[in-house]
Amino acid sequence: MSKVFFASARIKKWKYEDSMPGKLERLLKEMDLFRYFPPKEWVAVKTHFGSEGAHRIVRPVFIRKVVESLKKAGAKPFITDTVRIKGLDYLEVANQHGLNHLSMGAPVVIADGLYGNDNVMVKAGEILGEIAVASLIHDVPAMVVCSHVKGHINSGYAGAIKNIAMGTVSGTHRHCGWKCGRGAMHAVGEGAFVWDSEKCAFCFQCEEVCPLDCVSFENDTFTAQDERCWRCGRCTRVCPEGALSLPGDDTLFMKSLAEASQAVLSTFKPGKVVYINFLTEIQPECDCMPASEVPVIQDLGILVSDDIVAIEQASIDLLLKAKPLPASLAEDAKITAGQDILMALHNKNYTLQVEEAERLGLGSRKYEMIEIV
Questions:
Q1: Least confident of 47-56, 144-153, 178-187
Q2: Residue 77 pLDDT > 80
Q3: d(CA 6, CA 28)
Q4: What domains appear along the chain, each with residue ranges and CATH number?
Q5: Closest to 286 in 3D by CA, of 142, 134, 165
């Protein structure tokens, strides 16, 4: 049975040791990072840089504590993510959010190069076949995965599995394009866009939100450049009239997330990856959207484990016990205490990704929760 260490967001004493940064320090000490990362070993601290306007990422103060703990263990950490927009622009977004060398005490780099096509093809299973893993992630010997737990337009729930599957795989490949990158997961089982011209208000939000600039309205008709579009679904999410949809197969998508995670983790030796899930500012959408909604669930705390399946299951179990917050999307949807909040918001059977990850041998859904008080 895997161990999952937990620190609640609630405090009992007004002193640093009981603060969230203080508790994170204690969690990492309890994990004994020396066991995982020997002196001078390079360690990737994988997090999400966010987007311009989307500020509810893992707070820089927490990433800084991870860096400091790794340095105390003698390791050489750096902070990284893969390209979602143009690389230089993405580094500027990271800088705006407080993720830079000066504030973090460690370099901040793009894992798949400034153009997002620096990667290595890795075998990925029967659904994906193979996937383009960012070369830096592929080559580095160790990793700490810092995940902001939240909702997600496609996966319903986003934690460590989504962070690895979508965040350490490149958006594109030099020769086979998005079909070998994270777009391969988005496009699994999906059909063509369905646009209802009678419902369309021509607000052009779908065009504005597209990270690849492949949506346009030519002759007042919705057009998506099929060869460039990686089916991220942002355009359908922002449509206020419900005029745009992209039919898909949720089961295949969830399984593909687990497959991609397995492919990425296969590039590491056993015991070289540690996971930290931050159940804070739990908003309904991904941090890659151009804005952040108010949280739908109150801050719950921080989880740490070396088992990706166990930490995901533990995170979900905590979310299932939580109550919806007022004045949020949860209240708009009339979600009440006792309901599965993320399921009610997205109608996605999100536990499939965790179940599939367990089936693939990435970990166990059975865990022992050890709370740091």
A1: 178-187
A2: yes
A3: 11
A4: 2-184+250-371 (3.40.50), 191-245 (3.30.70.20)
A5: 165
Given pLDDT bands bounded at 50, 70 and 90, which one contains residue 336?
Answer: very high
* Residue ranges in the chain assigned as alpha helix (H): 20-31, 60-72, 87-96, 101-104, 135-139, 160-167, 183-186, 205-209, 234-238, 250-265, 308-321, 329-332, 341-346, 351-359
Burial 66-91 (b: 16+ CB within 10 A, else e): bbbbbeebebebbbbbbbbbebeebb
Residue 87 is predicted with a pLDDT of 94
Q: What are the φ and ψ backbone dihedral angles of 178, each rounded to 5 degrees?
A: -65, -20
Q: Which band of pLDDT confidence, cut at 50, 70 and 90, is reported for residue 189?
A: low
Three-state DSSP class for 37?
Answer: coil
Return the closest-CA partner of residue 258 out of 137, 157, 342, 341: 157
- pLDDT at position 335 is 97
The mean predicted confidence, pLDDT, of the chain is 93
φ/ψ of 173, rounded to 5, equals -130, 150
DSSP assignment of 246-297, as one string? Answer: ----HHHHHHHHHHHHHHHHTTS-TT-EEEEEEE-SB-SS-TTSSS-PPPSB
- The pLDDT of residue 325 is 97
d(CA 159, CA 151): 9
Residue 222 phi/psi, 5-degree rounding, is: -60, 130
Say how many C-beta atoms besides its own lie within 10 A of residue 12's C-beta.
Answer: 8
Burial class of residue 356, CB neighbours in 10 A (0-12, 13-18, 19+): buried
Placement of tokens 């600039």 in the chain: 213
pLDDT of residue 37: 97
Block residue for tokens 């205490």: 337
Query: What are the residues whose beta carbons fall under 8 Å from the beta carbon of 89, sequence distance 6 or more?
Result: none
Q: Which of 91, 135, 93 is nearest to 112 (CA)?
A: 135
User: Looking at 35-49, 144-158, 197-211, 250-264, which range is the least confident one?
Assistant: 197-211
